[in-house]
Write a structure and sequence with these properties.
Helices cover about 0% and strands about 45% of the residues. By secondary structure, the protein is mostly beta strands.
Length: about 180
């Protein structure tokens, strides 16, 4: 179920809450802003979001410049691009994950979390949460503090061939938990 974003709160474009799944296919989300979480998407309260063949770019938010997944939400992203998004006040330049998330054949690139002490320029995974990463690329993301690619405080299940390279200051080093197939 789609609800408009709350004023001054979460979601610059799409706020997904409890109810049936929200399916997005072959769409673009550019230049959205949220003072809170999720420059483009915010999922919470058992919301389900499926995004396919879409581009999420140049969005900004306090946390999760492109996507903020929270509160028992279930999110699956396939054949899409998260690029050049910014978490201007905290972690997760591209994606801030506080629930279960699946990325399949998706590129997370050029995102940033530049605030002092911020991590996970590409993706931040909170403790107790799971990322299923399949044939995806996490590249050229930056954060103020390591890691700049994926900051894994939960669990990452890796399938197929994932590429995690050229993130600054590190790809995954500095994470509380290892990211399978990630070096440096």
């Amino acid at each position: 179920m789609y609800t408009p974003p709350p004023a001054g709160g979460a979601a610059g474009a799409v706020h997904v809450v409890e109810g049936g799944p929200t399916d997005i296919d072959s769409s673009s989300f550019f230049y959205n802003y949220s003072q809170g979480g999720g420059g483009a998407f915010f999922t919470d309260f058992n919301g389900t979001l499926h995004v396919r063949r879409s581009t999420i770019a140049h969005n900004a938010s306090d946390f999760g410049g492109g996507l903020y997944a929270d509160n028992s939400s279930h999110t699956a992203i396939a054949d899409s691009r998260f690029r050049d998004n910014t978490a201007f006040a905290g972690d997760g330049g591209g994606i801030y994950q506080a629930e279960e998330l699946a990325l399949r054949r998706t590129v997370v690139s050029g995102n940033q979390a530049p605030t002092n002490g911020a991590t996970g320029g590409g993706i931040l995974i909170e403790a107790g949460n799971v990322l299923h990463l399949t044939d995806s690329k996490i590249t050229d993301n930056t954060s103020d503090t390591a890691p700049g690619g994926i900051d894994n405080n939960g669990t990452v299940n890796a399938f197929g061939t994932n590429t995690i390279v050229d993130n600054v200051p590190t790809n995954c080093d500095g994470s509380a938990n290892p990211v399978p197939g990630c070096f440096g």
